[in-house]
Amino acid sequence: MPVWGYTKTTGPHTWAVHFPAACGTKQSPIDIDSGRGEELTDVAPLSYHYREDACGAITNTGVGWKLLTGGDNPGEVEGGPLPSRYRLEQIHMHWGGTEQEGSEHTVDGKAYPGEVHLVHWDCENYATFDEAVSKPGGLTVLGVFLELGEENSELKKVIEALQKIPHKDMTSPMSTAVNPLGLLPGGAYWNYDGSLTTPPCLETVNWVVFKTPKTISQEQLNELRKMRTYAPDESEPKDEFKGQVIQNFRPPMPLCGRGVKECC
Cα(224)–Cα(66) distance, rounded to whole angstroms? Predict the structure, then answer.
């Protein structure tokens, strides 16, 4: 049985047993109070420098899909509230079993059906992602809400690739590369200090959560829930989801006095 997951026996309420950081005071995600953000002033716009073919492979992690970057420099983001340049490491997504849940961050108590995370690391002060991941401010994650609507053309490439990686630990090249810029809505965002939303839940993330959602279709959500949490040579787990990735989100964590800034 996996050490962590999203079932009754492996879900977020159990993570602290093996990952003590999950009990910290700067945990993510959070519920964002849209009326109480401290306005960010005199900040430069966020600036993106991504390669259109930045993500060349996709893997089934057993808790969802993850796009893997290739090459020496798949692209970077800087500006805004970021103190450094941050290089793209991977992209993944969270969703739920119904259309009323799925995003990790919530806004005024409201959840979206999904949330995409673009994970970056500080490439000015550290040589690798593994070095940066444990350092305060070593990571920046861009969070994008997904609302039910039209088919998402960039995620369509991901959905099509899932047919090649139905089971855990399967990896496949992307026949059509995903352009990270196509996943971002741009515009206003919230910013706060938090953590990885999955174990080991290290509190090293400078979060940027965009206010404007992108869309995802009902059909696309249905396809995501068909992913398997077990490897081809393993038996189907006897859990409530019957070995499918029906949901993979962590609920909001206490703010513990942290401030949330907003850029309009």
Answer: 12
